[in-house]
Write a structure and sequence with these properties.
The complex is a heterodimer of chains A (about 130) and B (about 475). Chain A is of the alpha/beta class and about 130 residues long. Chain A has six helices and five strands. Chain B folds into five domains: about 45 residues; about 45 residues; about 100 residues, PAS domain (Beta-Lactamase, 2-Layer Sandwich), CATH 3.30.450.20; about 70 residues, Signal transduction histidine kinase, dimerisation/phosphotransfer (DHp) domain (Helix Hairpins), CATH 1.10.287; about 180 residues, 2-Layer Sandwich (Heat Shock Protein 90). The chains are: A alpha/beta (about 130), B alpha+beta (about 475).
Chain lengths: ~130, ~475
Amino acid sequence: MADRIVVCDDEPFITHAISLKLTKAGFEVVTAANGQLGWKHIEQDPPALVITDLQMPELDGFGLCRLMRQNDQTRNIPVIMLTAKGFEIDHQQVMEELKLTAVMIKPFSPRELLELVQHSLGTAAAVS
Amino acid sequence: MSVCTYFMLESAAAAGFVGATCLLCTLAMLTSIARGERYARTAIHKSESRGQAHPQAGLYQSILSEALGVLQCREDELEKSAVNSRELQLHLQEKAFDLIRLQGTFDSLPRSIAILDENGRLQFMTSSAKRWLAAYPGSVDPTSDTNAFDLQRIPQIEQLVGEILGGQSPQTQRVAEIPNPHGDQHAVYRATATGIYDREQSLLGIAVSLEETGTKTFDESRHTELVSAVAHEFKTPLASIRAFVEMILDGDIDDRDEMQDAFRLIDVQTDRLARLVNNLLVLARIENGDVNFRRENCDLDEILKCSVASVQPIADEKELAITSELDECSSVIFADRELLQQAITNLLSNAAKYTESGGQISLRKTTDEDNAVIEVQDSGVGIPEGSLQKIFDKFYRAPGQSMEADGSGLGLTLVSKVITHVHNGSIDVSSTVDRGTCFTIRIPLGPKRPKWITNSASSTVSSASSPGILLRS
């Protein structure tokens, strides 16, 4: 059965692109327009991995990660954060604090994202 | 003379001693005095007989007395006019005090004010205006020996004043922004020129006021924040474009429909980038006090109809109903057609963006005494009260409002600047969360109608139609 991935971003074009890339690579993808909606999907059926934008309405990427880290069901799910913020945040600190797998800066490469996802889930060989 | 002699004799006798020499001396004196008396009598007699001998003496005398009479009259009049002049002087003094009080009042205002006559010549300036102008390079006319200030050497003011003098501007008020002449490049002054007209609508003068629009001292952190916000706005559409281009190149998109979709998305995002660049440039122009916008007399209804037409496809896609309700009055305004249409379109597409499918957007135009009033109302998500004040700030997004594909974060800032700075209008917003938002724009109507005509006309013609009738006449 394909690994399930939840993608949260308020840019519909971004979620569309990621969804397309990951689906072609054999993953099952669920998209959400903000952290709040994303959390509902994650809580209901904990996915294999979460890709989330940082700046989102309702609940941002930081908030979503904190929620996940407080819940036993979602505590250990790998999270990849996408952000358009470059030097404004200390990526190392954020990664450690929220136990992020990786931070990707927008504009990002879907190809690199896919590789990162596959690496995180240890499925690189199987899918490609 | 006789008294003198008597006194001399008496004093001599009283002395009780009269020397021979002394006596002789006294006698000689007496003789000479008596001779003098006689001479005087003869002289008087002679003059009297000469006077009687003149034949026209009577005439002279009557002329003299006539003249005396006239003189007396004049003296009375003089006295009267002296009283009048004192009163006039008091009155003038009172007026002078009034002027000083007025000058003091003007000087106490935070704005610097200058008054020009109907030919654009400087008549009056507040002390702050003098200081301001003295520091403005080139504002002192070198050809004038009095070192007179020449307000019109400042290009922004020259254009404002020129528009009013030339009657080109149908409005009485025009606004331009002038970069601070005092070396600090980040402070901007707003100059407002207001035509002063008499009842017959002929120009009496122009009042120019200068106001510092906030002390925008250069703030490094604010600058960084802004650059970072601009970069963020660029990155978002760029991210979509990059993602899709890479996926096309990688062969991830093989289906013909998917390919079509991808190209459409790239097209939309490229368009968004282009608009962002354009908006930034227009904003920079407005903020730098650029006054060279192409303002002309335009038909507002036409602009509104074009704006609705350009938003219609988005509305159709989201199944939103756009109703437009324009009153009968023809609304001629002095506007930069392209910018104004862009502003109205921004408001309409904003409304479409924040309104759920099946919702309503209405555009309404009414006309009051001086303004065209445009309302853009939606039945969308609304704006929380705490955010209402900030929505016109650059890159501000109200919490809870999702960032849709076509948002540039500059839309409302630009709308507000285009309305207030370029068109001397105003923009207000009211909103109820989950009920919708209403933007109200007021733009001065033109050509300028005399106020007193409007007032008298409104009593006989219904207020809704009177401005239109006056405009057509």
